[in-house]
SURF1-like protein (Pengzhenrongella sicca), 277 residues
Amino acid sequence: MPAPDSPPTTLLRAATRPRLLVLLVVLLAAAAVCGRLGAWQLDRAQSRGEQLERQQVAARESAAPEPLGDVLAPQESFNGELVGRAVTVSGTYEAAGQLLVVDRVLDGRAGYLVLTPLRVTGGGAAGWTGADPVLPVVRGWVEDPADAVDLLEPPAGVVTVTGHLQVSEGGGQGASAPGQTDAVSSAQLVNSWGGPIYAGYVVLTEASPAQPAGLALLGPPTLGTSDSGNYNVQNLAYAAQWWIFGGFALFLWIRMVRDEAAGDPPVSQPVAAAARP
């Protein structure tokens, strides 16, 4: 019976043969290169993702105001990407519902936000068939409302408000005194102002007709990038490809060791002629 050219052996003996040891060094080097290239692509994915996010933030900060109805509908969930979006909206202030938001700091000084409900004209959004919704508007900031009584009175009649959207705050502890609250929370405000109400609020930057000049405006919010970071999908795919190549190099060596340990299959010998002329 024909014998195999290379008899079977243990995996350890096969793995320590010089030829496979040299191959292991080569493939380990290749896997290390693939791993480094994958890490480089991961860094690129993060840097390009952060760059794109900064561009989006800059574009949002410099964008022209849009009609509120094109951006957010009453009782609609507030998308985090809407924070800082410049909007314009028309309606009528309901002075009787105005509140002072306590413990708000501006330029290092503690004071109050002037929060006024704006009953939005025409429903505020295309296709809206419900009652005119109410929009919380932060008209400005005062240090001591007792010294600024004339400034607190909102303009009468229809006004057009331009400002930046902010997401509704979480519920606070409630009013510390009549006419005050500790949070700009739509979930709480709907109990006193009625509905329908928007899930966010507007920080006023300008109004027509103009409101009293003594109210300090807050200005646009500072928009930062995500703490968790955003990644460019294309570079993530490249990183995954390099790591797969590195893993395949190691798998190839393991497969070769197993084949070496199994030995060569028997080689068929030529059969002598049964008869000669």
Observations:
- The chain has two domains: 1-63+224-267, 84-208.
- The chain has a mean pLDDT of 83.
- The longest helix spans residues 18-62.
